[in-house]
Design brief:
Bound molecules: magnesium ion
Largest sheet: 5 strands, antiparallel
Order of helices and strands: HHEEEEEHHEEEEEEEEEE
CATH superfamily: Creatinase/methionine aminopeptidase superfamily
Radius of gyration: 17 Å
Strand order of the largest sheet: 8-7-9-14-15
Strand content: 15-25%
CATH architecture: Alpha-Beta Complex
Amino acid sequence: MIVLKSAREIGLMRKAGHILADVMDRLRATVKPGLSTLEIDQEVEAFLAQRCATPSFKGYRGFPATVCVSINEEVVHGIPSAARRIAEGDIVGLDLGCIVDGYHADCAFTLAVGEIPVNVQKLLDVTRESLDLAIKECWPGRRLSDVSHAVQAHVEAHGLSVVRAFVGHGIGRALHEEPQVPNFGDPGRGPQLRPGMVLALEPMVTMGSWEVRILDDGWTAVTKDGSLAAHFEHTVAVTEGEPEVLTRR
Ligand code: MG
């Protein structure tokens, strides 16, 4: 069942989303070569505590950290570690959620650290653009798979691949609610979007094949062929009119 949210509930999710937007701004400024991914996690956890928000991921099905940090061929769910340091030229996926008064928001972006090749910048740009196109589909009356199709069409037009194993999701009192939001599929299918639906849209895109595998840590998803991957995510509320991106200031 897709749970519609009231204006009050969306207000709480907006509050959570704006805290995440602030975290993302800080990460853009602070993630530098030499920093360990555990240091990133600790800083974000302290910042959320200052803002009276609870991390969504820590303890979720046993995930041990506040932020998922996924570098280069890692697609999603990378576990922060003192041993893993950011290097010049890395692309770093940073994914986190937080809870305010029982309501979640979820967002992610992939950051280029220093100079990266033109084709890797294109991976980042196309993935972010595909998320923007997905958001533009979130009007009442559109079908869920219109959102999915917008991502796939843009990504594949640029010769890149959409990951199939992980999908976006409804969000609210739970981090993952119905419906699932794949980043691929034909348009015009699935439930109609209605005001009060809140969706975490999150294209994951690779430069090679879309196949992934999970590392022995039980969490980190990497591309099977070792190609680079990018991930962008926003929490988006369907309204009577224009979609509202709750994780953007
Ligand atoms: Mg998510």
